[in-house]
Amino acid sequence: MTTAAETPPPQPATPPPLWSPAALGRRWWGNVRSGEIGSTPIVVAIALITIFFYSKNSNFVGATNFNNLIVQMAGVTAIAFGVVFVLLLGEIDLSVGYVSGVAGVTVAELQLPGSSHQLPGLAAILLAVLVGVAIGAFQGSFVSFLGVPSFVVTLAGNLAWQGVILKTLPQGVIVIQNNTINNVANYFFTPTAGWIIAAVISAGYAAIVLNGIRVLRRHRLPVDNLPGELGRIVGVTAVAFLIAYWSGTDPRRGLPFAGLLIVALLAFWSFIAARTTFGRHVYAVGGNAEAARRAGINVTRIRMFVFMIAGGMAALGGVILASRLRSVDLSAGGGTILLDAIAAAVIGGVSLFGGRGHVKAAVLGSLVIAMIANGIDLVGYGSATQFIVTGAILLAAVTLDTVSRHRLAASGR
Amino acid sequence: MAKTPALELRGIYKSFGSVRALADCDFEVREGEVMALVGDNGAGKSTLVKCAAGIYTPDAGEIRFDGSPVHMQSPKEAARLGIEVVYQDLALCDNLDVVQNMYLGRELHDRLQLLDEPQMRRATEETLADLGVTTIDSVRQRVATLSGGQRQSVAVARAVMWNSRVVILDEPTAALGVVQTELVLTLVNRLAEQGLAVVLISHNLNDVFEVATRITVLRLGGTVGVYERAATSQEEIVRAITSGAQSREIQHA
What region, left, alpha or beta, does residue A368 occupy, with left being phi > 0 and alpha being psi -120 to 50 degrees? Predict the structure, then answer.
């Protein structure tokens, strides 16, 4: 006999604090049990790696190396953003390495002075990214419309695009002379500009978080974790200014533009994943494609878009990589780029089983991989050690993911 | 008593190749009642429900909604009329929280076309409270952390959230323990009290006798009879399910 009118509103005006230590602990444990480990392990890993290499060579934490590190990780990070979305969907894209190479060759061709197809730098970059999007759409259509396993489609792409690179670079190498393109990875802000950027980013982030709290207040909903939200503002502000300070102490160069680009991409893709219907549907399809289909979600369309994102971000990563070397050659997109990008997403905490993970994983995972490569290079261990250590960390990350997923199944009912 | 049934299927025939799944099958459900649909495996329960939900189109027969004939070609059309099915396998996304699942595929947006989380969260809390679902701590919990009964509650709440008139529950208690089953049966009662027409498919006659207003028995693709719960016994229903015997005349619709 209960009617809506008799039922008290679900939340009293002054609820018991949801952020008491006990409640926070319970929620954290609930998250861990449901397969959401959070970024704690990776932050710990980053700290340990820093301490280790610092003890071996104090230059590791120097400003010059810090700026190097940002530029070194930028390309793979951009590619990893796309990989995050593909993994969230429960698919894989093994072609991102050579798609990035194709984009690098494209951007180099399009700036070639004296050729009939020379374009302004920005237009060349845009076209290269569009080429990546088109490749993603082509490969994605096999997965989305025909149901061909993404593993095979993109493995085929991995081979084919490598062949395309070999075919389109008969001269073997193109030197990039366009300043716009080269500046993507080789422009460094002045220390003052670095401070301004840090201030703008902190203020923007604080405004977004505070606005979220204000909206909840307006709806008379409790803020789940007020100290956590405020702590995040303080944390982001501290990190932003620390980075600005740190890179500013480099006598020759300041904050790399590539670093700002990564932050902008992080903000953009986090926004897409968390605040838009599209992002919500990506998680839904990755979690349970059948449930998503029954809920009226156009699963085919979501898959198409995600592969286009992966292609586009791989291309942007390829432009950054080409810009860093100021040239492309026959090895463009090869080497460890593909595996680094996928490993970055997984190490950052994106589940290979789909539906779990955050966009920031791309940055955190790339940072770990770049730190290891950079540190091992600095200390002089050689690439053999680098491969072994990176492999071990990847294995640890996947094991953590799998174990937490088993826990999830166990706690399911 | 002569209320028009909310949903009415008359003389339904449906064959799959040479297999005749339904032959002259009748079914109806009125607002504010729980109509149980029982029958042995292969009696045609699922096929009948799929006809009612727009997934199958009957070969012959008539489907009436609020007394007027309808021709549903897809589940979407059924949903537009207000017919919702809660499937046995729930169709929830484990990795999403309660609010996200409730609004999956029908998200609310604010002026900037972004997800309107506060609005969705509040409406979810209100719906769950209306239905007397009080065992879920936080609607921001992931569905993976919920018990079987809680998940079933979320699935049911999602179905009734959209001004639905007819809710079809496919074996909602099949995988649940005693306490969880009670939780779901209470919820089923609550739906009928709120004026919905509820169809309950179940193998468990104890559950059926606990909540049903009337019971429709199917056998070999046809309707054996419609029984008032108050005027029948489990033995009679079992006999109807197994042998199709009618020890009493069919209660007329």
Answer: alpha
Q: Above 80 in pLDDT, residue A408?
A: no
Q: Among candidates B75, B54, B76, which has minimal Cα distance to B9?
A: B54
Residue in A26, A34, A224, A275 to test binding to B, most B beta-carbons within 10 Å: A34
Give the Å distances, CA to CA, from B60 to A251, A363, B15, B47, B49: 84, 60, 10, 13, 15
Q: Rounded CA gap, A192 and A248, in Å?
A: 8
Predicted ipTM?
0.82
Chain A stretch 103-162, residues whose beta carbon is closer than 8 A to a beta carbon of chain B: none
Domain identity same for A309 and A355: yes
Cα(A109)–Cα(A14) distance, rounded to whole angstroms?
64
Which residue from A219, A296, A297 is facing B122, i.e. has the nearest CB? A219
User: Whole-angstrom distance between the N-terminal and C-terminal Cα of chain A?
Assistant: 30
Domain, as residue range, for B215: 7-92+164-243
φ, ψ of residue B83 to 5 degrees: the values are -105, 120
Residue A333's closest CA among A316, A308, A309, A348?
Answer: A316
Nearest CA in chain B to A219: B118
Q: How many structural domains comprise chain A?
A: 2
Smallest Cα distance from A288 to chain B, Å: 5
Q: What is the DSSP string of A280-334?
A: HHHHHHHH-HHHHHHTT--HHHHHHHHHHHHHHHHHHHHHHHHHHHTEEETTTT-
In a domain, B98, yes or no: no
- How far apart are the C-alpha atoms of B95 and A35, rounded to whole Å? 9
Contact assessment for residue B100 and residue B93, using Cβ atoms and an 8 Å cutoff: yes
Q: Judge whether B223 and B217 are in contact, CB under 8 Å.
A: yes
- pLDDT tens readout for residues A20-29: 667 767 766 7
Report the gap between the CA of B38 and the closest CA in chain A (Å): 25
- Classify residue B99: in a domain, yes or no: no
Two structure tokens written together for B174: 């099949």
Which member of B92, B95, B126 has the closest CB to residue A10?
Answer: B126
Residue A118: pLDDT over 80: yes
B252 located within any domain: no
Confidence of residue A189 (pLDDT cuts 50, 70, 90): very high
d(CA B235, CA B205): 10
Strands annotated E in A11-155: none
What is the tally of structural domains in chain B? 1
Instruction: Tell whether A171 lies on the interface with B, counting CB pairs under 8 A.
Output: no
DSSP code at position B109: B
What's the pLDDT tens digit per position in B13-50? 999 988 889 998 999 999 999 999 999 888 888 889 98
A387 closest CA partner among A369, A360, A402 = A369
Give how far B140 is from chain A: nearest CA, Å. 9
Residue-number span of the structural domain to which A200 is assigned: 188-255
> Which amino acid is it at A224?
D
